[in-house]
């Protein structure tokens, strides 16, 4: 049997209530030569039986079963078994919208310099109950170009993992998901960007990203906020070493306790803080562990120092970007957001 052009890899664990819908959304795709490699990760419900039935009915579905070892092992097992030139990801509780595979494969065809593509995603949850997650989805949907993805990589995960499709060559060069006390999908994206992989998104909603209460990103400690900051700090420190002309000195925008806790992770990587900058007159003029807190109006001008905005409150990142832009500072040259 000839290898399909696209392999959709789907790790599955106790997803008997949702996996049929995910598979139906894939099998309805038109204009693409594909297979679905679904790996049951030792489920205790009827997931394996559902996968086996779909594989029996449709030759495009390949079903593997492994002892329970977690989503990373299941995802990598699916990738290892994949035969396609292009490899897509899909979660068993999400839904691929019509045209997803054809559009993303077309982007890779049309842009040989690009190694990974995503798409805009539709938030599949309650916006009133999950405003933070919905806000994140809205933000990531604005990042369509390689430059936008690259320069916002240290804010949050800029390309939702279930939406990606990539070239097999990237996998062979830069490696699959890694296990550790960090979010494996964010690590893969940061590692590939650091390795020079260019990325794009289709300017179309091609995936429904469901926000279920038991989603791993809500329940597993490797996806908590501290884990995100630990892994992003490693990559940010190396990025600064290559791109900050004033290395190892940086200027931190924000001086609150949370900002300092997250920024201080950089110290272990040899990064030095010239100052914290704030708008709160009660903080300005103090010193924190020897580092002065200065008025935000005193930040260095373009070419005079490199700034790291670490303020994560709603709307603050946009306000700080406007402030820095008005002073002539350019994203990627004079500052990069880190929260």
TrEMBL record:
Q: Which family does it belong to?
A: Belongs to the glycosyltransferase 2 family.
Q: Does the keyword Glycosyltransferase apply?
A: yes
Q: Does the keyword Glycosyltransferase apply?
A: yes
What keywords sit in the KW lines? Answer: Glycosyltransferase, Transferase
Glycosyltransferase 2-like domain residues are: 7-171
Q: Give the organism, scientific name.
A: Pseudodesulfovibrio mercurii
Molecular function, one GO term:
glycosyltransferase activity
Name listed for the protein in its UniProt record? Glycosyl transferase family 2
TM stretches of this protein: none
What InterPro entries does the annotation carry?
Answer: Glyco_trans_2-like, Glycosyltransf_2, Nucleotide-diphossugar_trans
């Amino acid at each position: 049997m000839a290898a399909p052009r696209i392999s959709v890899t789907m790790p599955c664990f106790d997803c008997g209530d949702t996996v049929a819908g995910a598979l139906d959304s894939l099998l309805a795709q038109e204009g693409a030569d594909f297979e679905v490699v679904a790996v049951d990760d030792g489920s205790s419900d009827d997931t394996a039986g559902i996968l086996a039935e779909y594989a029996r009915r449709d030759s495009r579905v390949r079903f593997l079963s492994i002892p329970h070892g977690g989503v990373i092992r299941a995802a990598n097992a699916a990738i290892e078994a994949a035969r396609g030139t292009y490899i897509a990801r899909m979660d068993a509780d999400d839904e691929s919208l019509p045209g997803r595979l054809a559009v993303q494969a077309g982007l890779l065809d049309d842009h040989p310099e690009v190694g990974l593509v995503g798409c805009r995603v539709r938030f599949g949850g309650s916006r009133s109950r999950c405003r933070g997650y919905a806000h994140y989805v809205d933000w990531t949907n604005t990042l369509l170009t390689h430059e936008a993805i690259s320069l916002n990589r240290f804010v949050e995960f800029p390309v939702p993992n279930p939406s990606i499709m990539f070239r097999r060559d990237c996998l062979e060069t830069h490696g699959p998901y890694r296990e550790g006390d960090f979010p494996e999908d964010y690590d893969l994206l940061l590692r590939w960007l650091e390795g020079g992989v260019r990325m794009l998104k289709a300017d179309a909603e091609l995936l429904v990203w469901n926000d279920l209460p038991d989603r791993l990103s809500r329940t597993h400690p490797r996806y908590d906020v501290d884990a995100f900051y630990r892994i992003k700090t490693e990559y940010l420190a190396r990025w600064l070493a290559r791109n900050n002309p004033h290395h190892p000195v940086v200027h931190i925008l924000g001086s609150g306790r949370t900002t300092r806790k997250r920024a201080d992770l950089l110290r272990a990587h040899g990064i030095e803080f010239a100052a914290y900058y704030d708008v709160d007159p009660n903080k300005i003029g103090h010193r924190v562990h020897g580092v002065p807190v200065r008025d935000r109006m005193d930040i260095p001008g373009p070419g005079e120092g490199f700034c790291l905005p670490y303020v994560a409150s709603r709307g603050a990142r946009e306000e700080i970007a406007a402030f820095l832009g008005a002073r002539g500072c350019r994203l990627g040259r004079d500052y990069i957001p880190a929260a």
